Every structure is written in structure tokens, then in C-alpha cells.
Amino acid sequence: MQVKMAGNRSLWSVFVATWTFVALSSSNAASFTPFQPPSYPLAVRSPYLSAWLPGNLASSLPSSAPQFWFGNDLTWSVIVRVGGVAYNVFGVTDAVDGTQQAALTDATFTSTHSTFTLTAGDGTVKLDFFSPVSPKNYLRQSLPFSYLTVTVSGTSDNVQVYSDIDDTWTGQSTASTWSHTTNGTTGVYQISPANPVTYAESANEQALWGEAVYATRPSDGSTLTSASGPPSTVRSQFVSNGKLGNSYPGWTSGGVVGFAHDLGAISGSSAVTFAVGHVREEAINYLGAAQTGYYRASYPETVAAVTYFLDDYSDAASESSSFDSLIESSGNSAYGSNYSDILALSVRQTFGGIELTIPNDSLDANDVQAFIKEISSDGNVQTVDVIYATFPIFYVLNADFIRLLLQPIFTYLDQGSYTLAYAPHDLGAHYPNATGWNSNTEEAMPVEESGNVILLTYAYQSASKQTDLATTYSSYLQKYAQYLYDNGEYPTAQYSLNDALGKLANQTNLGVKAAVGLGAYNKLSSSNAKYASAATTFADNIYTKRLGTNSGGNYYTIQYGVEPWFLVFNNYPDILFDLGIFPEESYNATSDFYPSVRSTAGVPLDGSLQWGQTNWQAWVAAIAGSSTQEEFISDLHAYISNGLNTAPFSDRYWVEDNGDNKAGQSYTFRARPTLGSHFALLALKGANIWS
């Protein structure tokens, strides 16, 4: 390379100047721990309270808007004044005159927290976005709110903290109403769509009914003021004065609702906490009757509920510290730090697709159920195979969630309108309408879902040591076992949970599902040896007699006698539950095979595809030898840390280059709760580890 000199500057001076620039740039660069994820969970508590920050926007946090899981922008800002100078800290997409940009120094995430640290003048500002995950505290888990705590330290100057949201959180931002209420020292804003449509969603899948909530209270001796109105007016008022005018004009298009805390002169550090949420009294349309949030048995009014949520901060934060430590230490000790990172990024997304409910009329806390949304694929409610994909996280943390998710399905069956010989696929075409399929027109997956209902029931019983589900619904379990017995070894052309493959006859993975399902049913019932015998016969034919493998038994085929090879994962419960259905040889052979077909970024779902599914990679890793396990974990970790993606953790991605798509880029899906599948490896270490 030829270097041209300017004037009498020496080559050495150019080198020094260049090195100095690079060194300063490197020293000013933010650090990301444990890595920069595709998207940071900010407020992720339900399908309708799901706010994220694309990872590539973290460095420009002061001017970057968070997004709803769908990808549309949300307004949520933080401005901090230090010594009379205002700094944009978060989400200020249109800078106010007289403000400066804070600078990000580091960003971290755990299972329940996403934390960003910035410098603002001589002060340090930490933003802690905290979405509680409390698998055994149903009140805490069901509250539809999330915390943002702003901590300022490192300065002795006077400090003020401002934050606002707007009606982008409602799904109907062209026409809204808002109100301001106080409850003691707590200030609460409620923003509602002006024309609510109960149980309906916008094109971005936000709720068109209910209300967005923003609340805070004074802390550390702060003085609280508030105001609503055009963002330029409200924010400029804070920038100029460090406080707001406590004026609340009616809603205007693009208006914000804001709070300002005056912390005074800082000694050490001082913090304020905000609560953001989305509340729907009529949360789920279940078989024509409204279900509401579990928390409403204790706090039926929104203002009281969010006030309690703020009251609960200290206890919730203490629990989250123990919870985060458990996830990290358990994952790390079992399979290394890469695995614990994967688990940490999976937790909030999983629980963020689920809501705990009770009947809206009785508010009976003893009649609790859980509903799950098939986020981003087709929006189905209570999809059985989505529950199946997700169950390992519940097996590990609280198996009662499996029961709570199955209960709406069994109650639906008791209603009598569903009369088919096999289990239903879901309870409704789109969340939150769990109204069933009275005309039996659902997307049928006969072998898949029949096996799943049995396996999920046994997963609950195995982990909890409770037999209530199997006893109460024994007639359905026997019915589905008989269906597998009659139809499972040679499945007719039908969908499996990988419905992108289309309807295929004699799918090997479905035959495996039938064998393992029958083995699990034998454990549940212990009443009919024919099912146990059929399970081993199916397995013997599929593997040992090569019905579903290549001639050498090195790999499973997608269909009996039909290539390509397939990443068979339905034998995972065979290992988890120690059923002893498939021979050890089958696991050793496939464990040796999968690394041989590993592509650029991982193992695809089958030999004809260029994309892989993280759910099933995790399940296969769980039943593979240690070196193969390490490869699967390494590939999954590389995928979520490669910097190529911005969507909330997609469980489908390209494993090799494909036209405009690079190996390691996500493919289609985003924010799905099925990441609970990543706990499949940890589940092998034991159930119910969270106390």
C-alpha cells in the first residue's frame, strides 16, 4: 500500500494519529455481556406487553425506539438532567432543543433483567428493565406490568429524571383517551383506545381493547410531577425546568404522558422506578366466557394492581436475583456458559407468551388456567404442539404449568363439541379467542397431538408426582392411546408439528411419536400390556428393522424408505422419562451421524433443507453424546450472538447461505414462546429445581 504524505508530516505522525484514533474509539466502545443478543427483552410479560430493543440499536440507545415484538416502534423515553444539563438516555427519537446525548458504556442481560449503563456529564445512569419471572408465585407472575428502574450515581449535582410513553402501546394510536390518577403517592396514567374492539388485534397483533398503564411514585426523597400533551411541549418543559406542570389536557394525536422526579443533590446513588403495563379485564374468550388475569382475584382494579406491583418491587427483585443465579449456575454446571447464556435469553420470551387466568365472573383463584399464544407463526391459541415444544422449561421450573396449559384443552373436550378420535390441535384460530372448533374444521395433526397430550400429561405426573390429571381425564388418554395403537405405526398423510413440510404419509418422526406416546401411556395407566408391547414393536420396526432408517441404521429418514435423512427428536421423551423404548444403539448411531451433516451454521431439520429449528436441535442435543451436544450448543450460541439478527430470538434460522439470506440469519419466526424447548438438556438433570 502506498501512503501519500500531507505537507511535511512524517509517516510516524500519521501512524500515531491513526493509532490514537483507533485506541480512543476502542476505549469508548460499549461492552456487551455476555454478548449482544438479536434483541433485548425490555418489558416482556404477555403477548400484548412485549417490548424489545433490537441489539444493533443498543449503542444508540438514547435515540432508538423500542419495538413491539412484531417490529413496530413504541414510544418510551428517558431524559436525565445532571447539574441543569439534560441528557437523552433512552428512546428520544426526536431530540429536544438543549439536550445532549448520553453515551452507552455497557449492556448486560440475565434471565429477568436487561441493564444499560450510560454516562451523562459527570454522572452515571443505569437503566434496569426488569420483567419478573416467578414460576411458583402466580400473583406475581400474572401481574401484567414490567419495571424500569433509573439509577443515577457518580455526581454530587442536582439530578432530575423524566420518562414518558404514548398510545403506541394500545394498538390504536389514531384515536385514544387517557387519564391520570393518584393512589397515595403513586401516579398512574391509563391510555385506552377510543374505539375498543374486545378480543380483536391490530395488523401488528396488538390488542385493540384494554389499556396501557404507566405508573411511578417518589423514592429516595424525590419530588414527583407529571403532565400530558404533545411530546415537544412536555419534554421541553422538563428540559427547561427539571419538573412538569401537573396539567392533563385531553388526548391529542401523538401526545405523551410523562413523569418527572426531582432527586435533588445526589449523594452516592439515587433511583426511581416506573411500571409499564397492558391490562385487559376481559383477557381471554374461553368457550364464550371471559377469563381475566389471575391477579384480579386480589386486585380487581387497575390502579390498585399497579400500586401493589410497585409495592412488590423489593421482593420481586430479590427473587429475581436468586432466579437468575439458578439459571446461570444450573446451565453452566450442566453444559457450560454457552448453554447458560441460551437459557438466560430464552426465559422471558417463553413466559411472555403465556397468561395465567381465572373466570372473570367469579374471580375464583382456585380455578386457574394458563393460555399460550402461537406468536408470529399463525397466532393460534393453546396449540398443543407448541405446549409440547415448550414443556421442558416447566418440567425444570414448575411442572404445574403443564397442568395449567392442558386444563383448558381437557375442559373443552368435556364440553362435548369436539368428537374426533384424536386430540385437537388448538382451541382457536387466533389468540385470545379460545372458542374451539365446533365444526371440527381445525388444522388436524392426529398422531402428533394425540401423542403430545399423553406425553404432556406424563411429563406433569413424572415431575410433580401428582396423578390428578391422569385420573380425571383417563378416558381421553385411553382414547388417544388407542388411536396411536391403531394408526401410529403407519401414519396416513398428515401434518406434523413441522407443518411447513406439508402432509406426508409414514413420517418417521410421527411413528417415533406414537411409540414413545404409547410407552408413556403405559406408565400412566399400567393397565393394559398391549400398549407397552406396541410401543416396543413400533420402535423395533422403525429402528432395528430399518423401517424408518437407512440400511445401516446411521440415520432416520423423513418417511419410511424415503430420503432425505431427518433430525428425529420425538424420541427425547424416551430418554427423559427412561421409557426404554428405543435401543441405545439408535442414539449412538444418530449422535455420530448428525455432526457429519452439520452445515455452516448448524444442523438443518432434514437433508433437503437449508434451515434449522433451535427447538429440535436442543432436543437432539439432549439425547446425543457429549461431543455432539457441544456442537449443537456451540452452533446455537453462535447463531444468537453473531450480530446478523434483530428480531426477538427466532427459533428458525438459516444454517447455510440461501440467496439473499446468510447462514446464521433468522428465518420468519420471532418472539415465540417455544424457546422453553432449550431447557431439554437441563431437564435431564432433574425436575422442579426452582423452590
From TrEMBL:
Keywords: Signal. InterPro entries: Glutaminase_GtaA (IPR052743), GtaA_central (IPR032514), GtaA_N (IPR033433). The keyword Signal applies. It holds the Pfam family DUF5127. Residues 336-682 form the Glutaminase A central domain. Residues 1-29 form the signal peptide. Residues 112-329 form the Glutaminase A N-terminal domain. This is Glutaminase.
